[in-house]
Amino acid sequence: MPWTQLSRAVFLRAVLWLLSLVVTNTVMACTLPAGSDINRQEGEFLISVQFDKQPLELGALHSIQAIICYASGQAYTGEIKADAIMPAHNHGMNYQPSFTMTSPGHYTGTGFVFHMPGLWRLRLTLQSDNGKQLIEHDFVL
Amino acid sequence: MRNAIKLCITLCLVFLPAVWATPDNETLDYDTHELAFIRSLGPWPPVSKKDESNRFSQQEDAIELGRQLFFDRRLSLNNTSSCADCHQPDLAFQDGVALNTALAPLHRNTTSLLNLANRPWYGWGGEHDSLWSQSIRPMLATAEMHTDLSALQKVLSQDSFFQCAFQQTTGLNLADLTQQDLLVTIGKLLASYQETIQSGKSRFDLFRDQLVDAENTSPSQKNAILTAEEQVGLKIFIGEGRCTFCHSGAHFSNGEFGDIGVSFFTANGIDKGRYDGIKALRTDPYSLLGRYNDATKNSNDAKEQGNTETIPHNALRTSHLQLLHRNWGEFKVPSLRNVGQTAPYMHNGSISTLMDTVDFYSELDEERLHADGEKILRPLHLTPIEKDSLQAFLLSLSGPIHAAQEKPSLFSQCR
Amino acid sequence: MKSINKTLKSVSLLGTLLFSGSFLQSVHAEALPSAGLMPLIDTHIHYSHDAVYSTPPKKAIEILREAGLQKAFVSSSSDKGTQLLYAEAPDLIVPVLRPYRKRGETSTWLHDETVPAMLEELLANNTYAGIGEFHVYGKDANLPVIRRTVELASEYGIFLHLHGDSDAVEYVFEQDKDARILWAHSGFDNPEDVAVMLEKYPNLTADLAFRTSHAYRGKVDEDWRKLFLAYPDRIMIGTDTYTPERWYYVVDHAEWSRTWLADLPTDVAEQIGYKNAQNLAAWALK
């Protein structure tokens, strides 16, 4: 292979590599939108959670959008476990919610039905190398 | 404290006849908490919404054909009964007996069919997630209609008027259908009619509207639509009685299930209620997760995501159900609209009068409930006057019942 | 509406697969227990006065056998129910002494000073593997009635079936470090907290009665799996027949238990399913 061609190939590859770095970094850079229903730092995580509508409707199926970043700015891409309980009555929902990651750090969860008026506690569990992180959010229906 | 309130209520009521005598009812005082609860019990009627799982929902000719089927005894084995024989229009679409004995003794009370559009679960155990799949159930139940499907298909195909009306409404040829498709289509037509069975504004709704209006404009304290007695009952209902924990929202039901301590032994075994309901849903070919859900076909969104095996959005509630130990012996929280007209009560018809249901809650057997933490249900030990008030309030929940009427002109070219 | 559509987009394939999997399982679960099924020991059964009335001993034993149980730990308010069943099927019933004379003494019994005498008399005259299931929370575990109950269990070399929080468990172990406790419902604690207790107290065992969080559609939850694998010899299953109707749940519950036990390594499933309970009964009834 002549030198010029080789160096062009190397150069092209380097450009591609640089480009890919930029691209992955913009995808991975994780930032939270302002003004969601939950917006806070918990341990090593930054969390934003938005219900599909407010006020929440008793007995109706609700979904939530969650954005979860490490404080370092990286997106969380692990599993989310979720449930909601009524601490006063020691019972939870009749449904088992599920989460799907739509893009790095961005999750949609559904299967939430809050069937009684009163204080509910939403509980999300994240799993990182440092162990489990529980995020609790109380709200009144 | 409770006793003091009770005494006060008692005294108030003793002096109430004076109030009742005049046409003007006072509006009692409600704190913001109570007002929020009252507001949450409406508005009524709910906004009408098409059932996406049923492509015939809200279609005029489907409603009429469904109405005809509802009254048609040919749907049952040997023409024994139509839907309307158990769900009688002049009895709020139920039958007035504790347990019906159609082809064999039943172990569940016939429910009234009011306001069934767009509810999450049907049947006392929530065995079905759509009105149309619930409507198939009596045809398959050997103790109820025990329909001979091939005979039915033959009879209906030979009825040239029906065959024509069916073709006009569904675009399908009766004789060509598989038995499953026939069942599902009949179920969906029946459902379209049943969606029109509704109760209008009750006196409670008018009262609520009045209160909500008064909150928005200048309060007028006079001429409340509910009597003071009914309002005392309302206060028990949303307060001490905690009835709105389950009988909540405009339907007076959260759509879910509960165990309030009604026995669930049957004549020869046990009615597992919600537990079997969930199991049935998970295996039911006619559930919203199956191929007959008309919403499935419209959901192109999933394909865009490259996700072909997706669950239609109207089936998400079904797909996320979990089976819990407490589901065993739970029954659907019934709507209390027009409850004054739907005796006898409870899933097994074991309580004959409305006053007896009030007594039931007043003297509840707490030991039957596996409550952990702060109790939702506990015996209320109501005084006779409080009981009367609660009953009076429940009676104020009745509104005029209406349903689609006969429209023969729709199928004029089939005659 | 819009958001529902969004939800639709993201329902995972995994969810669908899980669902169709459980579809098969629930069909399978309908099958009657047959000879090939794993035996189970149900450690949380009550046969109270009203259950005796609605489901007579012969029928009750029939139900336990239908569920494919090798043994059943039975405690009743009053104890008469337990004795009736024990007389009917001594091979099947492991009698446990409930300190309640009738249902509904869960919060009053520990203040009732006539309870110890009743226990003493019954213990002297009958065979029991344990005392319980009784309810006690927090510092109440130091009340005289409980103290005497703990002493009696030690005298007879039998276990305590305790329904309460971890504090109550700790107070009892303070009174008697050699006590054996079967912790009802695993204290309704989460698996991490149960693990802490099991680690701290080697004589503590736990039942899973009335709990569902450890299994969803036949699959064992990962946190619970860790607990089960870390303490395979300390956990047992149970139904909790707290109303007469619930007797009939024993069969469904056994079927349900077998489905999630099948998701564990066979040896662990056998330990949790029956061997741990077998050992506890053997120790108490030596």
Could you give the topology of this structure?
The complex is a heterotrimer of chains A (141), B (415) and C (286).
Chain A: H1 3-28, E1 38-42, E2 45-51, E3 61-70, E4 80-86, E5 91-92, E6 98-103, E7 106-113, E8 119-128, E9 131-140
Chain B: H1 2-14, H2 17-21, H3 32-40, H4 60-70, H5 83-86, H6 131-140, H7 149-158, H8 160-170, H9 179-194, E1 198-199, H10 203-216, H11 228-238, E2 257-258, E3 265-266, E4 269-270, H12 274-283, H13 301-304, H14 316-319, E5 331-332, H15 354-362, H16 384-395, E6 401-402
Antiparallel strand pairs in B: 1-6, 2-5, 3-4
Chain C: H1 2-10, H2 13-29, E1 40-46, H3 49-54, H4 57-66, E2 69-75, H5 80-88, E3 93-97, H6 115-125, E4 130-135, H7 144-156, E5 159-163, H8 166-175, E6 181-183, H9 191-200, E7 204-207, E8 215-216, E9 219-220, H10 222-230, E10 235-236, H11 249-261, H12 266-284
Parallel strand pairs in C: 1-2, 2-3, 3-4, 4-5, 5-6, 6-7, 7-10
Antiparallel strand pairs in C: 8-9
Helix pairs in contact in C: 4-5, 6-7, 9-10
Summarize the structure.
Chain B is an all-alpha fold and 415 residues long.
Strand line-up across the major sheet of chain B: 1-6
| Count of distinct strands of chain A | 9
CATH superfamily of the domain at 60-199 in chain B: Cytochrome c-like domain
Tally of strands of chain B: 6
Major sheet size, sense and barrel closure of chain B:
2 strands, antiparallel
Provide the gyration radius of chain B in Å. Answer: 23 Å
Q: How many helical elements of chain A?
A: 1
Strand-residue proportion of chain A: over 45%
SSE class of chain A: alpha+beta
Tell the overall outline of chain A: elongated
Flag low-confidence runs of chain A.
18-27
Q: Using the 3D structure, state the CATH architecture of the largest domain in chain A.
A: Sandwich
The fourth-level CATH homologous superfamily of the largest domain in chain A is Macroglobulin (MG2) domain
| Termini Cα gap of chain A | 72 Å
How much of the sequence lies in strands of chain B comes to under 5%
CATH class descriptor of the largest domain in chain A: Mainly Beta
Keywords (chain C): Signal
Pfam family, one (chain C): Amidohydro_2
Protein name (chain C): Amidohydrolase family protein
Domain Amidohydrolase-related (chain C): 113-278
